[in-house]
Structure formats: C-alpha cells, structure tokens
Amino acid sequence: MKKLALMTAVLALAAGMATAQTVRMGTEGAYPPYNFINDKGEVDGYERELGDKLCAMAGVTCEWVTTDWDSIIPNLLSGNYDTIIAGMSITPERGEVVDFTQNYIPPAGSSYMALKADANTMGRISVQVGTIQADYIASSGATLLEFATLDDTVAAVKNGEADAVFADRDALLPFVEESKGEFVWAGDEVQLGGGVGMALRKTDTELRAKFDAAISTLKADGTINAMIKKWFGDEAVVF
After folding, report:
1. Are residue 215 and residue 152 in the same domain, yes or no?
2. Residue 120 domain-assigned?
3. Residue 238: inside a domain
4. pLDDT tens-digit profile of 13-65?
5. How far apart are CA 175 and CA 186, in angstroms?
6. How many other CB atoms are there within 10 angstroms of residue 65's CB atom?
7. Same domain, yes or no, for 84 and 113?
8. Start-to-end Cα distance in the chain
C-alpha cells in the first residue's frame, strides 16, 4: 500500500508539472545588470534571477523572450509574451495601458554621465527611446537625442555626438567604474518614477496577483534586498 501511495503521489506531481502554466517573460536583454544576454546566449541578470524565483513561487514555468525596447509594450498587448520584466519604471502614463505589480526595485536616481564633470547637461543629451528619462529631457529644454539601446546612448557620448547620457544611475554605474576615468558623473541626480515593476495586460489579474504575492514574500524575508546588492552593489538603494 505504501509503494502504491508513493507511486500515485509521484504520478500526480508529474502530471501537475506537465500541465503547469507557461508564462512568457518579455525582456530586452540589453540593459545590464537588470537584464542582458550572457556568453551562453541566455537571458541573465537581476531580473532573470528574480523572474525565475517568482515563477517558481507562483507555480508557473518561465519562458524568456527578448524584444526591442521601443516595441516592448505593444508586443505585450499583442500577446507575444505575458509579462514585461525589463527595468520598466512604474508611471501613471504606462499604467493607463498596462497593469503593474508592486515594485521589485525601489525608486532610484537617474544620472548624467559624460566625459567631463562640467559637461553641459542642458546641451545634447542621449537617452534610450521610450524611457522616463527621455520624457524628462524632452521637457527640460535640453536637446533630446534618442537611441534604441543603452549602449548606443553611451557610444553617442564617446564619439562626441552627445554631451552626456541620462539614464538609470544603476545602469550607468558599470560604465563609470569600468572606464578607468573616461566616464564621470555630471550634473545633479534626479528622482523619477515609482520604482521598477512587472507589467501585465489588464485582463491578467490572477497572474498579477500571484506575482504580487511572491514579491511581497521576497521583500519581507530580505531576499530581494540581497539580490539587489548582488547585482547592483552594496551601495544600491534597497527596501
């Protein structure tokens, strides 16, 4: 009887795994350390580690999908994937078309990075298209230069096309640290957005609730703070 009961439990577990919901996690794969493609050609970074953990806690199977940033919301709405987990700041404007989970990164600063500390932050500023930083620069009076990826915005500064790049400070920090003095901070840090969260279609209320509950648990037990420090450093803003 014990062997029969054990076999029944194993079969039930296998059946449950086979029918587990697959959730397609949409990300950019070009915004380290939030998300990037590693040497194996796989999605990696803070959001990959966190996303896999959230899927396990929600009882679903993750499938990772990469897409260009400027089409990331339209592709979600078109059904090409089920979530966006891609360093996306929570804003009222985005909240009109998608629903967000609570944030899994607290509100943090946006900064200017340039080749010299006294760079003109009201001059030609490179930003990634479709970001809250782009909206800020557009309304600041500076000359807005938009590019498809973060790497492109940095290259524009390096080649003299832009006076400075404006982006999440956490995303620019590796460039500053690894440039050995070539890149420096310029101007003042600016607080934008309500932190970073997962975006889902407004109809997917049950799935959003599962991820919300998992994020709450990981905040309460300190797991998210440990992940943030692992990927962004000990000086990163935590909960």
Report:
1. no
2. yes
3. no
4. 334 334 469 999 999 999 999 999 999 999 999 999 999 999 999 999 999 99
5. 14
6. 15
7. no
8. 50
